[in-house]
Amino acid sequence: MYEKNGEKYFVVDSHMHMWKAGPDNWVKGAEQYAKGWIECFHAYQSLGPKETHWTIEKFMSYTQDDLMKDVFEDGYVDVAIFQPTYLKEWYTEGFNTTEQNANLGEKHPGMFVMNTRFDPRDGDAGLEELAANVDRYGSKGVKLYTAEWNAGSRGYKLTDPAAYTFLAKAQELGIKNIHVHKGPTIWPLDKDAFDVSDVDHAATDFPELNFIVEHVGLPRIEDFCFMATQEPNVYAGLSVVIGGLMHARPQFFAKVMGELLFWVGEDKMTFGSDYGIWEPKWQIEGFVDWEFPDQPEFADFPRLGVEGKKKILGLNAAKLYDIKVPDELQLKEAEPAAQDDAKLVTQ
Amino acid sequence: MTAVATERRSRVLAALDHVRDPELDEPITTLGFVASCHVSAAGDVAVRLRLPTYFCAANFAFLMVADAYDVIAALPEVRNVDVVLDDHFAGAQINAGVAARAGFVASFDGEAADELDELRRTFVTKAMLAGTDQVCRPLLASGTSPADLAGLTLGDVPPSAELDRLLRRRSELGLPTDAAAPLLVDPGDGTAISGPGAPKYLGMARLTRTGIEANTGICRGMLRHRYAETGAGEEEQR
């Protein structure tokens, strides 16, 4: 919970990680990819405030204690949603598996939501693994990284027939939320790997699933926003938007926020720190303080007030994951008294 | 360096100013992507390129390396061209493919279905929309309504660097660029945007520009973290 100016914010970090990326976990012969991946993540961290930067050594191998302190003790987060990213072609034990997440999550009941993942190229074994993970960890969400390399393949689309098989299976198992993360590779390589039109199709064909597009489709914000206006079950995951732009490029941050508020709206935007890339503390503090610059070019955009910030920082994600929010941290209009009043009037 | 060598190097860098990052629609020189550029007395050119991350998309990286190769090879005083992309996951394939002038499909055997013309067109279209916003924004700020903008021609717009850039992007897409052509056109078929359709069209144009600018901001920040040295021809912006 974060409190500022008498307002209390329930915080759900809807996109964060516990990874293991040191040289001892690099696959022999694929060291350059493992190294390139984590160095790329580390460069993203450089876009945050200087005092929050870590050495590459700590960044590769932060500990469970670091996470608990940065996310919960210092970082105001009430519930954190663990998102796995496997990358087993590059990292021997996986970069960030469901098991690694659970290893920490199981020590702290109620503080984490344990998402899992699937890869449509894994066939029947993948379907079994998905079912086992949902059963064991109670997962209600999956994280999909479409650029993952897998046995010679450099990626997939959500519209691949196998992906539909997995989405149908996930839904049958009780999964509600699909977090989509696009990356630089895909088959065929001549197509734009960041194109989100496959999410558009899947969202239409699976109307009971929610699709949270992480980093709001960056670098394809325009395609994402246009798609999100047409699909009621598509959400904007703000990981990277706040972490990568709010401090480093405040003017662009304001423009991106303006566009998101206009096209997507505050009811469908969710905060995610992307920890360990960025610590949540400065992101939450800065976001609560943030206002549009007082310049004419921002005048057209919808305003974002305290209620909107409460939704984005936690209440929207709490709804998606059925996370119980204490009454005093709900929006005022959602208090049960209001409903009772309405009932009295109609009776 | 002799005066002749310096002048030759400037000509190579000037040629590289015409090579753009297809996604960011900015020259690779000003973005800092040209790590080094050497020209020998005999006319042998060696250029090294670098990108913000190890995993920047292979298709865009290929286009930049291939375009750099082509603009340098077209200079009359150049004898040999060597363009190398450093520190990139697909660097070996890209460098070998471009040196052999093999095309994208042959360079990425089995991984690509087609050459990159369609991809390039998609991104020139985005650049054209963003460029339309750059030209229209000051007009909107001075009180011209979206519907009025739909009634304007290119000739009605005061000259500016932004307008020149828009005309170049329209030309690349085969769209009309004469003074009597409408200011707002569909990037696919060049038909004029109607007054009622103008607000949505302009909204898309602004959104597209915001997307490109945000990406450029992130890419510049990542590059600065990755490489301490300034690139050949690099300019910091904002």
Brief rundown of the structure:
Chain B: This is Metal-sulfur cluster biosynthetic enzyme. The complex is a heterodimer of chains A (347) and B (238). With 347 residues, chain A is α/β, with parallel strands linked by helices.
Major β-sheet strand ordering of chain A: 6-7-8-9-10
CATH architecture of the largest domain in chain B: 2-Layer Sandwich
What is the CATH superfamily label of the largest domain in chain B?
Fe-S cluster assembly (FSCA)
Radius of gyration of chain A: 20 Å
The strand line-up of the biggest sheet of chain B is 3-4-5
Largest sheet of chain B, in brief, is: 3 strands, mixed
- Along the chain, the helix and strand elements of chain B come as HEEEEHEHHHHHH
CATH class of the largest domain in chain B: Alpha Beta
- Name the overall outline of chain A: globular
How many distinct folded domains of chain B?
Answer: 2
Low-pLDDT stretches of chain B: none
Pfam family, one (chain B): FeS_assembly_P
Domain MIP18 family-like (chain B): 10-83
InterPro entries (chain B): FSCA_dom_sf, MIP18-like
Protein name (chain B): Metal-sulfur cluster biosynthetic enzyme
Secondary structure layout plus pairing:
The complex is a heterodimer of chains A (347) and B (238).
Chain A lengths: L1 E3 L2 E3 L2 E5 L14 H15 L10 H5 L3 H10 L5 E4 L15 H8 L6 E3 L8 H15 L3 E5 L15 H12 L4 E5 L15 H9 L4 E4 L7 H10 L3 E4 L3 H6 L3 H14 L5 E2 L9 H10 L16 H15 L15 H11 L1
Parallel strand pairs in A: 3-4, 4-5, 6-7, 7-8, 8-9, 9-10
Antiparallel strand pairs in A: 1-2
Chain B lengths: L2 H14 L3 E2 L4 E2 L6 E6 L4 E6 L8 H16 L6 E6 L5 H9 L4 H4 L9 H25 L4 H5 L10 H12 L25 H29 L12
Parallel strand pairs in B: 4-5
Antiparallel strand pairs in B: 1-2, 3-4
Helix pairs in contact in B: 2-3, 5-7, 5-8
